[in-house]
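Technical annex B. To support the medicinal chemistry partners, we prepared a structural model of the target in complex with flavin mononucleotide, based solely on the information shown next.
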Amino acid sequence: MPDRWPGNRVCELLGIRHPIIQAGMIYNSGAQLAAAAANAGCLGLIGAGSLRPELLREQIRAARALTDRPFGVNLPLLYDHAGDCLDVALEEGVRIFFTSAGSPRRIAGRLKKEGCVVVHVVAHPELARKCEDAGCDAVVCEGFEAGGHNGREELTTMVLVPLCVAAVSVPVIAAGGIATGRQMAAALALGAEGVQVGSRFAVTKESCGHPAWKQAVVAAGPADTQLCLKPLVPVRLLKNRFRDEAIRLEQECVSRDRLTAWLGQGRARRGMLEGDLDEGELEIGQVAGLIDDVPSAADVVARLIAGHDEAVARLGRTVAPEG
Ligand SMILES: Cc1cc2nc3c(=O)[nH]c(=O)nc-3n(C[C@H](O)[C@H](O)[C@H](O)COP(=O)(O)O)c2cc1C
């Protein structure tokens, strides 16, 4: 198979055909999605954030039965069960970890000793530098447009990616606001060597999200998401009754304790896995406005590549100087 991305360090690091990462996403990226993305030439990630350790073990085994290509695990470090999930993933032979929501310092050392590839998600160039110092092999630079938990600084992908490219020498993977090939081409033009795509893969046939949740994203318009719950952990959410109430409480400046008590447990599961579109937490990025169908993961990848190639060819025709 000819090398489509000669010299691309993200492809080389992860052993993948295309420099595309299917993002780890609670209640959406299980074995089926990770394996489908891997089979389409990308890196698939199982999202461990919503999985108890033994369920993660099952999902790793299920993915391995569906693909012989590389896949990895996304491990948000803020959850209590992160350490146990890490042990299980290592026992099951996973050697690619995308960590997030915490400091990579302690964990990167351990994972490097185990011979793993470690990539950490950041929302600020200073943290990208710390990741490099800690031994991470690459960084995902995730802008404010992204779905899910988000940086407090509100740096957009357009600004964050070139700042991180200037700050570190390890490869930068752009995330946040990338759902089409044009956006992928733009991210690579900013100096990223790969893209991590979340929301677009959440709304695919292989995502384990509830069908009603996927349809809600299809129906959403470009301005239907908003960053909420900043006093706790900022998260970009789709408009619904739950989100409106979160915004109202924030505007009333209620205490963190009251906000935590109101939030309770299991809102994300209720929204994205069980399909409660009123009272559940619906995490999606600004690209919701660009998502209008539920294709297969392989179709998403084919569109990304075709759209990227078209964009680059068009730029070659319209932007390159004469002569
Ligand atoms: C439904 C959903 C759940 C997410 N869950 C996680 C998670 O568990 N861990 C994590 O590191 N990032 C999570 N994210 C962020 C993604 O990994 C990714 O970086 C982000 O979606 C990229 O932006 P995009 O949505 O604009 O493509 C989530 C995003 C979405 C949409």
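Notes passed to the chemistry partners:
Residues 211-287 form one domain.
The pocket of flavin mononucleotide is lined by residues 23-26, 28, 47, 49, 74, 76, 100, 121, 142, 145-148, 175-178, 196-199, 202, 272, 283-285, 287 (CB under 6 Å).
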